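pinning this so it doesn't scroll away 📌
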Amino acid sequence: MLRSPSRFVRSWITAAIVGSALVGCGASAEPAGEETTAAKKTDVNVEPIKAARELTDTNGVEISLKKEPERIVCLFALCDDILTELGIVPTATNSALLAHPDFLGKEKAKEVDVIPGGFIAPEVEAILSHKPDLVIGLKDTHGKLAPALKGATTFWPMQPESWEDSVGYLRDVAALTGRTAEGEKAEKAFRTKLAEAEKNKSDKTALIIYGSDENFGVATPETDVGASLFPKLAEYPWKSRGVEGSYSLEEILARDVDVLFVETMSFGEADGKLSEKLAKNPLWGKIPAVKNGDVHEVDSEVWAKGRGTRSLGIVLDEATAALR
């Protein structure tokens, strides 16, 4: 049995993994209850977005700007995703998402400055050197930067936990940047794609796992934005166990997983795929998805870190193709 030995917060690990241990939001072998994201059909209607200088965002944070922001620094990938949807290029970033071909692509992404210090500890001096009108970060990780940025720029701490949160943040940024038409278009495209996928829900059992080694984690709909889509796409009987959750191949084997999506995550140079490392365990080969060749290594920059409507659209495309 492979178990994760220490504590972990999924919203933090989806952007970076410290060391080789993965811990946190867990999976349950019991089917999820009726109160799931699959219970409510996706509404494809989009409410008009109104431009604003002040608003209370989708999670209750109050944001106020003197003018439309022209120089935006992104400290996590949802920011890059939203700006791309709105036709805006960030002034600087510390995410690799922009290099994806469905975003800016490798060559254009090289023109965007990278904030040194990495995801966990971006350098305040480097951030401020870009004279940003707005800095967007992940609350759990970058909230500690707020005092150092106060007075010099506006810091916006976001905390997405579901696809609905991501849509809400898209609308909020569209309002503050005046890109209301672009925001409505992006939301409409995503909702339409999700509704179409929902109509063709698969009867297969699916699972998303992530990690750098055999101490893997399970993405659950309550705590992971990408996984929050899956109850609409397939059978997804995995529930969060909170920060003390642990995982085992025995549990996955018991659920007869038909299609397995794998997010390999690591610092620095990649040292092999997670699925290849798990293959060393004899239980791995007994999982139906493994036996049938339905294990899909996916791009963690998009699946785990992107979290915005463009990334989630890619997840929908790749997931529905695999679940047919």
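📌 and the second one:
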Amino acid sequence: MAVAGGLQLSAPSHGCQGQVLLSSTKSTLFAGSPLSFSLSTYGKESFCRKNLVVFARRLSGLEEAMRIKRERETRQLAPKIGRRPPLRRGRVSPQLPVPDHIPRPPYVGSSILPEIASEHQFPGSEGIADMRAACELAARVLESAGKLVRPSITTNEIDIAVHQMIVDAGAYPSPLGYGGFPKSVCTSVNECMCHGIPDSRQLQSGDIINIDVTVYLNGYHGDTSKTFLCGEVSESIQRLVKVTEECLEKGIAVCKDGASFKKIGKRISEHAEKYGYGVVERFVGHGVGTVFHSEPLILHHRNDQSGSMVEGQTFTIEPILTMGSIECKTWPDNWTTLTADGSPAAQFEHTILITRTGAEILTTC
């Protein structure tokens, strides 16, 4: 999710029977959001550590091979893409005001991160019209924001423009005030996986930037993101961006009433592995509608997640791919999350509606 961006996982979720318990932390975010949860079971069955171990062993050979391949390609590409200085925090300006007549989501006014709602979201025949309107607005704002991307513009200037477009449409920028998030959009540059806070840093030719837009309109959230190229971007990084978008498309393609959620991660991983890219496991998609973040949590990597999609439900899919390590580190602001090795990362996101025969992408213009 984005705040729209990715939910953050603190424990493996493969091959276990039991209930997922969610607890919010200061680092948790929207979809993107970092969510942290623990796994436990009830009744007679105990936590299935044995199953987790077996599953990990089964994948360890493939994962190690892919890790070696990614490291080799990263070394080979280094002379071509050059050594860009690591991302540094710029000056963060105060948050922008929202006119009083615009309705706020219930979390606004509190710095406490909301719990992830356990209920799956089904807008219904009446609500889906409002949901479509919110998602279409988010898509329009995102495309307009993407046209601003150029060398010398600051991410803060992008935030100002996004904020103005949203409030002019009578909507509220969902990230603003979510668990204390200080801005109206997430801007994640180069090695930033997600949840970047707009600041005074100027974009440079060769940068990539994910812009994550979520709006709250007529009681519904619309959530979408896209990675844009700034100036002259190397072919290797352009390929990362292109493949990430393809992974989102392939994940959506398996969705329909009755399909298992784990098919999404399988299809995304299969495509990413063809190019030697890593799929970030820590951040996941999520249910979205009247609530910003809810179940189901959508895993983008290979997994044994239980459950199936149901006609009428809405959620996001938002894979993050990297050219190197899928491990991450978070800045002291508790939001900005970067790849641990400084390698580039890209992300794309859509909000979708499950139908009887497929999935409708709601976040389109």
